[in-house]
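ARCHIVE RECORD
Type: protein–small molecule complex
Small molecule: iron/sulfur cluster
Source of inputs: curated submission
Record status: active
Notes field left blank by submitter.
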Amino acid sequence: MSARNRIYPVFIPHLGCPHACVFCNQHEITGAAEEEALGQLNSLSENPPQGAAYELAFYGGSFTAIPVEQQLRYLEAAGRARDCGAVSSVRLSTRPDAITPEILERLKQYGVETVELGAQSMRDTVLRASGRGHSAEDVRRASAMIREAGLSLVLQMMTGLPGDDDDGAVDTARQLIALKPDAVRIYPTVIVRGTELERRWRRGDYREHTVEDAVRVCALLLPLFEAAGIPVIRLGLNPTDELSGGAALAGAYHPALGELVRSRVLRNRAERQLAQMHCNGEYVTILVPEKKLSQMLGQKRCNAAWLKERFHLAALEICPDPEIADLVIEKDPYGALIEELWSHYPPKT
Ligand code: SF4
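STRUCTURE (tokenized, with ligand):
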């Protein structure tokens, strides 16, 4: 793991956020208080880690929307951790409407290098229905300011918010790509206990964004970002004891969501190629780079079974090939011949 990837997360409390996003219950997710977060930072300075320094990440709230004095207490504690070598750089997440050139100047003075913006959607109807309290234009404006300030920009988007659909998610991804972020995170909606979304869901006013919904739509988004050279550094909420212990009531909560999505991307690609090659009823071999074999097969070989049924394949082999860098699909010209021979000359047992 590189030093840049060695993240030390500090969850800041919800204080100061005047909004009530329908999916958010910061207490359920973070539960941290200011003293607790500052205590974490102070002990980091007192006991610097062995090995490479951490990248300190303030998550869990809208950092630049909390009172300035409180921001300064966090930033000064982060500065001490930097001074003693425990921390190499600082990143934080915030809202698009809590960014100004002055705010960014202050962050830079305290060594912040990366700002993550919770864009969530680039459709104003979705943002309104989700109680976000900012517009898509706020995302564009804040992104431009962060880039102009010379800071790294990470954009976060969600799928499955009220009023959104697959087209809306693809449209959001395209608009985020146009903002040239250094990376993105995708968070399919989870219904967390105690949120407005839970109440809507229980009333029947919101349809759950299932794991399958999330896998389907994220398998459209991931190739878009990758084709644009933008890394997707997170797919799905980080599993936590609270969420796994019952706070995640429904929705797209799955500890291996990223793997499921990458597996679906490969299935989609194989499906397209098999259709283009008119493989219905054929004997087919799919060669995959060794490290992608399990993704191509899918959990419990579900991709293999799905492709076989979808194209009524006579046989489907999925084999690793150390020589190739990408999928290679071959119709097996000998498969039918061997089958025919066997029908005339069945193997002796
Ligand atoms: S802006 Fe962020 S912290 Fe505030 S309610 Fe929305 S998601 Fe939660």
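CURATOR ANNOTATION: The chain has a mean pLDDT of 91.
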